[in-house]
Amino acid sequence: MNQNIMPASKMGFGCMRLPLLDESDVASIDIELFKQMVDAFMEAGNTYFDTAFVYHNGASETALREALVKRYPRESFTLATKCLAWAMPDGESAKNCLDVSLERLGTDYVDYYLLHNVGGKRTAKFDEYGMWDFVQREKEAGRIRFAGFSMHDNADTLDQLLTAHPEMDFVQLQVNYLDWDDPHNKASRLMEVAQKHGKPVIIMEPARGGRLCNLPPQAAQVLEKAAPEAGQAQWAYRFCWNLPGVLSVLSGMSNLQQTHENVASYRDNVPFSPAEQAALDEAVAVLRSLASVPCTSCNYCVKGCPANVQIPKVMELLNLEAMTNDHQFVKDLYSWQTAEGPASACIQCGACEAMCPQQIDIINQLKRAAEKYE
Protein backbone atom coordinates (compact mmCIF):
# COMPACT_ATOMS: atom_id res chain seq x y z
CA MET A 1 0.00 0.00 0.00
CA ASN A 2 1.30 3.47 -0.91
CA GLN A 3 1.87 5.14 2.46
CA ASN A 4 1.78 8.59 0.88
CA ILE A 5 -1.95 8.14 0.38
CA MET A 6 -2.66 7.91 4.11
CA PRO A 7 -4.15 11.02 5.82
CA ALA A 8 -3.06 12.07 9.31
CA SER A 9 -5.80 10.05 11.01
CA LYS A 10 -8.53 7.57 10.12
CA MET A 11 -11.32 9.84 11.34
CA GLY A 12 -13.07 11.36 8.31
CA PHE A 13 -15.55 14.24 8.35
CA GLY A 14 -18.48 13.45 6.06
CA CYS A 15 -20.07 16.66 4.75
CA MET A 16 -23.38 15.27 3.51
CA ARG A 17 -25.55 16.17 6.53
CA LEU A 18 -24.27 19.58 7.62
CA PRO A 19 -26.26 21.84 9.99
CA LEU A 20 -28.90 24.02 8.32
CA LEU A 21 -30.33 27.44 9.03
CA ASP A 22 -33.60 26.40 7.37
CA GLU A 23 -34.55 22.71 7.49
CA SER A 24 -36.63 23.13 4.33
CA ASP A 25 -33.60 24.34 2.35
CA VAL A 26 -30.74 21.84 2.07
CA ALA A 27 -28.42 24.55 0.75
CA SER A 28 -28.85 26.82 3.81
CA ILE A 29 -25.78 25.52 5.65
CA ASP A 30 -25.02 27.23 8.95
CA ILE A 31 -21.48 28.35 8.08
CA GLU A 32 -20.64 29.76 11.50
CA LEU A 33 -21.60 26.53 13.24
CA PHE A 34 -19.79 24.54 10.59
CA LYS A 35 -16.64 26.57 11.27
CA GLN A 36 -16.78 25.54 14.93
CA MET A 37 -17.16 21.90 13.90
CA VAL A 38 -14.22 22.16 11.52
CA ASP A 39 -12.08 23.77 14.22
CA ALA A 40 -12.89 21.02 16.75
CA PHE A 41 -12.09 18.36 14.16
CA MET A 42 -8.81 19.94 13.08
CA GLU A 43 -7.65 20.77 16.61
CA ALA A 44 -7.95 17.08 17.48
CA GLY A 45 -5.45 16.24 14.72
CA ASN A 46 -7.90 15.03 12.07
CA THR A 47 -7.57 16.16 8.47
CA TYR A 48 -9.87 14.24 6.09
CA PHE A 49 -12.98 16.02 4.72
CA ASP A 50 -15.35 14.24 2.35
CA THR A 51 -17.91 15.94 0.11
CA ALA A 52 -19.43 15.50 -3.36
CA PHE A 53 -20.61 17.52 -6.34
CA VAL A 54 -24.23 16.89 -5.33
CA TYR A 55 -24.16 17.15 -1.51
CA HIS A 56 -26.48 19.88 -0.28
CA ASN A 57 -27.10 20.72 -3.96
CA GLY A 58 -23.48 21.82 -4.25
CA ALA A 59 -23.49 23.97 -1.13
CA SER A 60 -21.40 21.43 0.79
CA GLU A 61 -18.39 22.23 -1.39
CA THR A 62 -18.82 25.99 -1.04
CA ALA A 63 -19.29 25.60 2.71
CA LEU A 64 -15.95 23.79 2.89
CA ARG A 65 -14.33 26.67 1.05
CA GLU A 66 -15.59 29.13 3.66
CA ALA A 67 -15.10 27.01 6.80
CA LEU A 68 -11.90 25.18 5.88
CA VAL A 69 -10.03 26.19 2.73
CA LYS A 70 -10.03 29.94 3.46
CA ARG A 71 -9.07 29.44 7.10
CA TYR A 72 -6.36 26.77 7.12
CA PRO A 73 -3.14 26.22 5.15
CA ARG A 74 -3.87 23.97 2.18
CA GLU A 75 -1.25 21.41 3.21
CA SER A 76 -2.85 20.98 6.65
CA PHE A 77 -5.95 19.08 5.44
CA THR A 78 -7.09 16.63 2.78
CA LEU A 79 -10.15 17.03 0.57
CA ALA A 80 -12.22 14.37 -1.15
CA THR A 81 -15.02 15.01 -3.60
CA LYS A 82 -16.95 12.92 -6.11
CA CYS A 83 -18.50 12.86 -9.57
CA LEU A 84 -21.81 11.10 -10.38
CA ALA A 85 -21.08 10.63 -14.07
CA TRP A 86 -24.08 8.29 -14.49
CA ALA A 87 -26.40 11.18 -13.55
CA MET A 88 -24.90 13.53 -16.15
CA PRO A 89 -26.38 13.96 -19.64
CA ASP A 90 -23.06 13.54 -21.48
CA GLY A 91 -19.34 13.06 -21.04
CA GLU A 92 -18.51 16.75 -21.26
CA SER A 93 -20.85 17.51 -18.35
CA ALA A 94 -19.40 14.65 -16.33
CA LYS A 95 -15.82 15.81 -16.85
CA ASN A 96 -16.80 19.41 -16.09
CA CYS A 97 -17.79 18.36 -12.56
CA LEU A 98 -14.15 18.57 -11.52
CA ASP A 99 -13.85 22.19 -12.72
CA VAL A 100 -17.01 23.12 -10.84
CA SER A 101 -15.92 21.33 -7.68
CA LEU A 102 -12.51 23.00 -7.68
CA GLU A 103 -14.12 26.42 -8.12
CA ARG A 104 -16.62 25.79 -5.34
CA LEU A 105 -13.92 24.48 -3.00
CA GLY A 106 -11.59 27.37 -3.78
CA THR A 107 -8.58 25.16 -4.47
CA ASP A 108 -6.57 24.11 -7.49
CA TYR A 109 -6.46 20.42 -6.59
CA VAL A 110 -8.29 17.74 -4.58
CA ASP A 111 -6.47 15.06 -2.66
CA TYR A 112 -8.99 12.27 -3.36
CA TYR A 113 -11.33 12.25 -6.36
CA LEU A 114 -13.97 9.55 -6.63
CA LEU A 115 -16.05 8.21 -9.47
CA HIS A 116 -19.20 8.01 -7.39
CA ASN A 117 -21.57 5.04 -7.04
CA VAL A 118 -20.09 2.81 -9.72
CA GLY A 119 -21.72 -0.59 -10.16
CA GLY A 120 -24.75 -2.13 -11.86
CA LYS A 121 -25.92 -0.40 -15.02
CA ARG A 122 -24.32 2.84 -13.81
CA THR A 123 -20.83 1.59 -14.67
CA ALA A 124 -21.64 1.80 -18.38
CA LYS A 125 -21.85 5.59 -18.20
CA PHE A 126 -18.39 5.88 -16.62
CA ASP A 127 -17.09 3.69 -19.44
CA GLU A 128 -18.97 5.54 -22.17
CA TYR A 129 -17.82 8.94 -20.93
CA GLY A 130 -14.18 7.88 -20.60
CA MET A 131 -14.07 8.78 -16.92
CA TRP A 132 -11.39 6.23 -16.00
CA ASP A 133 -8.88 7.76 -18.41
CA PHE A 134 -10.05 11.27 -17.51
CA VAL A 135 -9.11 10.98 -13.83
CA GLN A 136 -5.68 9.60 -14.76
CA ARG A 137 -5.04 12.58 -17.03
CA GLU A 138 -6.11 14.92 -14.25
CA LYS A 139 -3.72 13.15 -11.87
CA GLU A 140 -0.89 13.80 -14.33
CA ALA A 141 -1.98 17.44 -14.54
CA GLY A 142 -1.83 17.74 -10.75
CA ARG A 143 -5.49 18.56 -10.18
CA ILE A 144 -6.11 15.18 -8.53
CA ARG A 145 -3.62 13.51 -6.17
CA PHE A 146 -5.35 10.13 -5.82
CA ALA A 147 -8.19 8.67 -7.90
CA GLY A 148 -10.67 6.07 -6.69
CA PHE A 149 -14.30 5.05 -6.85
CA SER A 150 -17.20 4.38 -4.51
CA MET A 151 -19.74 1.61 -4.93
CA HIS A 152 -22.76 -0.01 -3.28
CA ASP A 153 -22.44 -3.43 -4.86
CA ASN A 154 -21.14 -6.92 -4.14
CA ALA A 155 -17.64 -8.34 -3.88
CA ASP A 156 -17.74 -9.91 -7.36
CA THR A 157 -18.45 -6.51 -8.90
CA LEU A 158 -15.62 -4.95 -6.91
CA ASP A 159 -13.24 -7.66 -8.08
CA GLN A 160 -14.24 -7.09 -11.70
CA LEU A 161 -13.80 -3.32 -11.43
CA LEU A 162 -10.40 -3.52 -9.77
CA THR A 163 -9.25 -6.13 -12.30
CA ALA A 164 -10.33 -3.84 -15.13
CA HIS A 165 -8.89 -0.71 -13.47
CA PRO A 166 -5.79 -1.56 -11.44
CA GLU A 167 -4.65 2.03 -11.84
CA MET A 168 -7.18 3.25 -9.28
CA ASP A 169 -5.57 4.20 -5.97
CA PHE A 170 -8.35 3.39 -3.49
CA VAL A 171 -12.00 2.39 -3.10
CA GLN A 172 -14.84 3.62 -0.93
CA LEU A 173 -17.14 0.90 0.43
CA GLN A 174 -20.06 0.45 2.79
CA VAL A 175 -18.69 -1.41 5.81
CA ASN A 176 -20.14 -1.76 9.30
CA TYR A 177 -20.62 -4.45 11.90
CA LEU A 178 -24.19 -5.19 10.83
CA ASP A 179 -23.20 -5.73 7.20
CA TRP A 180 -19.97 -7.59 8.00
CA ASP A 181 -21.36 -11.11 7.67
CA ASP A 182 -24.74 -10.15 6.19
CA PRO A 183 -25.65 -12.55 3.34
CA HIS A 184 -26.78 -9.63 1.15
CA ASN A 185 -23.95 -7.14 1.64
CA LYS A 186 -21.09 -9.29 3.04
CA ALA A 187 -18.82 -6.36 3.85
CA SER A 188 -16.08 -8.75 4.98
CA ARG A 189 -15.79 -10.07 1.41
CA LEU A 190 -15.54 -6.53 0.07
CA MET A 191 -12.59 -5.87 2.36
CA GLU A 192 -10.95 -9.14 1.31
CA VAL A 193 -11.23 -8.20 -2.37
CA ALA A 194 -9.78 -4.73 -1.76
CA GLN A 195 -6.89 -6.29 0.16
CA LYS A 196 -6.30 -8.81 -2.64
CA HIS A 197 -5.88 -5.93 -5.08
CA GLY A 198 -3.76 -3.92 -2.65
CA LYS A 199 -6.23 -1.04 -2.44
CA PRO A 200 -6.82 0.93 0.77
CA VAL A 201 -10.47 1.46 1.72
CA ILE A 202 -12.42 4.52 2.73
CA ILE A 203 -15.35 3.28 4.79
CA MET A 204 -18.76 4.88 4.35
CA GLU A 205 -21.88 4.14 6.38
CA PRO A 206 -19.95 2.84 9.43
CA ALA A 207 -23.09 3.45 11.49
CA ARG A 208 -25.49 2.40 8.70
CA GLY A 209 -26.76 5.94 8.11
CA GLY A 210 -27.08 6.51 11.86
CA ARG A 211 -29.17 3.37 12.44
CA LEU A 212 -26.44 1.78 14.57
CA CYS A 213 -26.61 4.83 16.81
CA ASN A 214 -30.29 4.19 17.51
CA LEU A 215 -30.53 0.48 18.20
CA PRO A 216 -33.69 -1.28 19.33
CA PRO A 217 -33.71 -1.86 23.12
CA GLN A 218 -32.98 -5.58 22.84
CA ALA A 219 -29.62 -4.92 21.14
CA ALA A 220 -28.80 -1.68 22.95
CA GLN A 221 -29.01 -3.38 26.35
CA VAL A 222 -26.36 -5.92 25.37
CA LEU A 223 -23.84 -3.20 24.51
CA GLU A 224 -24.71 -1.05 27.51
CA LYS A 225 -24.10 -3.98 29.85
CA ALA A 226 -20.67 -4.61 28.33
CA ALA A 227 -19.54 -0.94 28.33
CA PRO A 228 -21.92 1.38 30.21
CA GLU A 229 -19.94 4.52 29.33
CA ALA A 230 -19.64 3.86 25.59
CA GLY A 231 -22.11 5.32 23.14
CA GLN A 232 -23.60 3.25 20.35
CA ALA A 233 -21.75 5.31 17.72
CA GLN A 234 -18.46 4.51 19.41
CA TRP A 235 -19.09 0.78 18.99
CA ALA A 236 -19.76 1.28 15.28
CA TYR A 237 -16.71 3.44 14.64
CA ARG A 238 -14.30 1.31 16.68
CA PHE A 239 -15.29 -1.72 14.64
CA CYS A 240 -14.21 0.09 11.46
CA TRP A 241 -11.21 2.04 12.73
CA ASN A 242 -9.44 -1.15 13.72
CA LEU A 243 -9.93 -3.06 10.48
CA PRO A 244 -6.75 -3.55 8.40
CA GLY A 245 -6.33 -1.61 5.17
CA VAL A 246 -8.53 1.33 6.19
CA LEU A 247 -7.65 4.74 4.82
CA SER A 248 -10.45 6.70 6.50
CA VAL A 249 -13.79 6.09 8.23
CA LEU A 250 -16.39 8.70 7.35
CA SER A 251 -18.68 10.13 9.96
CA GLY A 252 -21.47 12.41 8.79
CA MET A 253 -21.66 15.13 11.44
CA SER A 254 -24.59 17.52 11.83
CA ASN A 255 -23.81 19.43 15.01
CA LEU A 256 -20.97 20.41 17.33
CA GLN A 257 -21.84 17.82 19.98
CA GLN A 258 -21.46 14.99 17.46
CA THR A 259 -18.09 16.39 16.42
CA HIS A 260 -16.81 16.53 20.00
CA GLU A 261 -18.09 13.03 20.75
CA ASN A 262 -16.57 11.54 17.60
CA VAL A 263 -13.13 13.09 17.99
CA ALA A 264 -13.08 12.03 21.65
CA SER A 265 -13.97 8.47 20.65
CA TYR A 266 -11.18 8.39 18.09
CA ARG A 267 -8.68 9.80 20.58
CA ASP A 268 -9.52 6.97 22.99
CA ASN A 269 -9.78 4.27 20.34
CA VAL A 270 -8.44 0.80 21.09
CA PRO A 271 -9.34 -2.57 19.53
CA PHE A 272 -12.20 -4.51 21.12
CA SER A 273 -11.35 -6.73 24.06
CA PRO A 274 -12.54 -10.36 23.78
CA ALA A 275 -15.46 -9.53 26.09
CA GLU A 276 -16.43 -6.50 24.00
CA GLN A 277 -16.23 -8.49 20.77
CA ALA A 278 -18.48 -11.14 22.31
CA ALA A 279 -20.98 -8.45 23.30
CA LEU A 280 -20.97 -7.01 19.80
CA ASP A 281 -21.50 -10.46 18.31
CA GLU A 282 -24.43 -10.97 20.67
CA ALA A 283 -25.95 -7.61 19.71
CA VAL A 284 -25.69 -8.50 16.02
CA ALA A 285 -27.37 -11.84 16.71
CA VAL A 286 -30.20 -9.99 18.45
CA LEU A 287 -30.60 -7.70 15.44
CA ARG A 288 -30.61 -10.66 13.08
CA SER A 289 -33.32 -12.33 15.16
CA LEU A 290 -35.58 -9.34 14.48
CA ALA A 291 -35.41 -9.91 10.72
CA SER A 292 -38.78 -10.89 9.30
CA VAL A 293 -37.82 -12.61 6.00
CA PRO A 294 -35.45 -15.64 5.95
CA CYS A 295 -33.77 -14.57 2.70
CA THR A 296 -30.13 -15.68 2.22
CA SER A 297 -29.54 -13.69 -0.99
CA CYS A 298 -28.81 -16.80 -3.05
CA ASN A 299 -30.20 -14.88 -6.08
CA TYR A 300 -31.96 -17.91 -7.56
CA CYS A 301 -35.16 -15.85 -7.64
CA VAL A 302 -33.60 -13.08 -9.70
CA LYS A 303 -32.40 -15.39 -12.46
CA GLY A 304 -35.96 -16.40 -13.30
CA CYS A 305 -37.69 -13.05 -12.85
CA PRO A 306 -39.09 -11.73 -16.16
CA ALA A 307 -39.67 -8.28 -14.61
CA ASN A 308 -36.12 -7.93 -13.20
CA VAL A 309 -37.49 -7.21 -9.72
CA GLN A 310 -34.61 -6.70 -7.28
CA ILE A 311 -36.00 -9.37 -4.96
CA PRO A 312 -33.04 -9.93 -2.59
CA LYS A 313 -32.60 -6.18 -2.15
CA VAL A 314 -36.31 -5.76 -1.36
CA MET A 315 -36.13 -8.58 1.19
CA GLU A 316 -33.02 -7.00 2.74
CA LEU A 317 -34.79 -3.66 3.14
CA LEU A 318 -37.82 -5.29 4.75
CA ASN A 319 -35.46 -6.92 7.24
CA LEU A 320 -33.54 -3.70 7.78
CA GLU A 321 -36.70 -1.92 8.85
CA ALA A 322 -37.55 -4.78 11.19
CA MET A 323 -34.08 -4.54 12.76
CA THR A 324 -33.87 -0.75 13.03
CA ASN A 325 -37.53 0.25 13.37
CA ASP A 326 -36.90 3.23 11.07
CA HIS A 327 -39.43 3.28 8.24
CA GLN A 328 -38.42 6.58 6.64
CA PHE A 329 -34.74 5.67 6.49
CA VAL A 330 -35.51 2.39 4.73
CA LYS A 331 -38.01 4.05 2.39
CA ASP A 332 -35.34 6.52 1.30
CA LEU A 333 -32.93 3.65 0.60
CA TYR A 334 -35.62 1.77 -1.32
CA SER A 335 -36.23 4.71 -3.66
CA TRP A 336 -32.83 4.28 -5.30
CA GLN A 337 -31.60 0.80 -4.38
CA THR A 338 -34.51 -0.88 -6.19
CA ALA A 339 -34.86 1.61 -9.04
CA GLU A 340 -33.88 -1.02 -11.64
CA GLY A 341 -36.69 -3.32 -10.51
CA PRO A 342 -39.11 -2.17 -7.77
CA ALA A 343 -41.48 -4.52 -5.97
CA SER A 344 -44.47 -3.12 -7.84
CA ALA A 345 -43.05 -4.47 -11.13
CA CYS A 346 -43.87 -8.02 -10.00
CA ILE A 347 -46.28 -9.77 -12.41
CA GLN A 348 -46.98 -12.56 -9.89
CA CYS A 349 -45.86 -15.33 -12.25
CA GLY A 350 -44.49 -17.37 -9.33
CA ALA A 351 -41.15 -18.22 -10.97
CA CYS A 352 -39.27 -16.79 -7.99
CA GLU A 353 -41.17 -18.82 -5.40
CA ALA A 354 -40.57 -22.01 -7.38
CA MET A 355 -36.82 -21.34 -7.21
CA CYS A 356 -36.56 -20.16 -3.58
CA PRO A 357 -34.70 -22.67 -1.34
CA GLN A 358 -36.14 -20.95 1.76
CA GLN A 359 -39.72 -21.26 0.46
CA ILE A 360 -40.37 -17.57 1.10
CA ASP A 361 -43.79 -16.19 0.12
CA ILE A 362 -42.02 -13.76 -2.18
CA ILE A 363 -45.10 -12.43 -3.98
CA ASN A 364 -46.76 -11.43 -0.71
CA GLN A 365 -43.52 -9.92 0.57
CA LEU A 366 -43.19 -7.85 -2.60
CA LYS A 367 -46.78 -6.64 -2.18
CA ARG A 368 -45.93 -5.65 1.38
CA ALA A 369 -42.82 -3.76 0.25
CA ALA A 370 -44.68 -1.91 -2.50
CA GLU A 371 -47.33 -0.78 -0.02
CA LYS A 372 -44.72 0.33 2.50
CA TYR A 373 -42.17 2.06 0.30
CA GLU A 374 -43.73 3.09 -3.02
From TrEMBL:
<dbReference type="InterPro" id="IPR036812">
    <property type="entry name" value="NAD(P)_OxRdtase_dom_sf"/>
</dbReference>
<dbReference type="InterPro" id="IPR017900">
    <property type="entry name" value="4Fe4S_Fe_S_CS"/>
</dbReference>
<dbReference type="Pfam" id="PF13187">
    <property type="entry name" value="Fer4_9"/>
</dbReference>
<dbReference type="GO" id="GO:0046872">
    <property type="term" value="F:metal ion binding"/>
</dbReference>
<dbReference type="InterPro" id="IPR053135">
    <property type="entry name" value="AKR2_Oxidoreductase"/>
</dbReference>
<keyword id="KW-0411">Iron-sulfur</keyword>
<feature type="domain" description="4Fe-4S ferredoxin-type">
    <location>
        <begin position="336"/>
        <end position="365"/>
    </location>
</feature>
<dbReference type="Pfam" id="PF00248">
    <property type="entry name" value="Aldo_ket_red"/>
</dbReference>
<dbReference type="InterPro" id="IPR023210">
    <property type="entry name" value="NADP_OxRdtase_dom"/>
</dbReference>
<keyword id="KW-0479">Metal-binding</keyword>
<dbReference type="GO" id="GO:0051536">
    <property type="term" value="F:iron-sulfur cluster binding"/>
</dbReference>
<dbReference type="InterPro" id="IPR017896">
    <property type="entry name" value="4Fe4S_Fe-S-bd"/>
</dbReference>
<keyword id="KW-0408">Iron</keyword>
<protein>
    <submittedName>
        <fullName>Fe-S oxidoreductase</fullName>
    </submittedName>
</protein>
